Amino acid sequence: VELAEGFELAPNILALGGELKSTVCLLAKGKANISEVLGDLEQEHVYRHFITQVDRAFEFCSPTHLVIDKHPDYLSSQWGERLAQEKNLRLHAVQHHHAHLAALLAEHAIGVDEVVLGVVFDGTGYGDDGTIWGGEFLLGGYTDVERVGHLAPVPLPGGDATIRRPFRTALAFLHDA
Predict the structure, then answer these.
(1) What are the average pLDDT values for consecutive 10-residue runs of the chain, which has 177 residues?
(2) Measured distance between the N- and C-terminal CA atoms of the chain, rounded to whole angstroms
């Protein structure tokens, strides 16, 4: 993916996706090189493929920064923390929905200094406040966002299990209503 003006001078950044539909993205020389959707990292063969994709990124260039999902229990985040320490990379933990907004900005070649109102309805993500977020209105850009609106929180039956069974989230909202 060719990126908007201003990315040519960006450092080489390796970003590791979430856990369920994981991907790997390498930002180098003003281009984003994105892997296919790898799948659920809790499946051993997918996790091994994920590690292979990360290793291949280092064959292409030498990232100086590593981006992981802010969720501390994600296997990709845990792997990334170890990798950053091992390879002496600057580590950045990013809120899941902010990452989606940044990806959309890049996809539409929005400049690095632009501010947008992003509406992100991508299920759940570990929030900046330590709670589970879902249905966000985010004001900001690539580096910073402010959560200016969101769906009211509801208890999720099974916690993170709702990621794999979205009907549970629907039932929780119906029950709350």
Answers:
(1) 58 90 88 89 95 92 93 94 96 94 88 93 84 91 94 79 79 87
(2) 42
Q: Are 114 and 36 in contact (CB under 8 A)?
A: no
Task: Compute φ and ψ for 56, nearest 5 degrees.
Answer: -65, -35
pTM here is 0.85
Which tokens sit at 169?
A: 């989230």
**Structural tokens at position 153:** 């929180």
Residue 109 DSSP symbol: T
At a CB cut-off of 8 Å and minimum separation 6, what does 176 contact?
Answer: 152, 154
* Tokens 């299920």 -> residue: 123
Six token digits for residue 89: 């990379």
d(CA 36, CA 169): 27
Between CA 46 and CA 75 the distance in angstroms is: 11
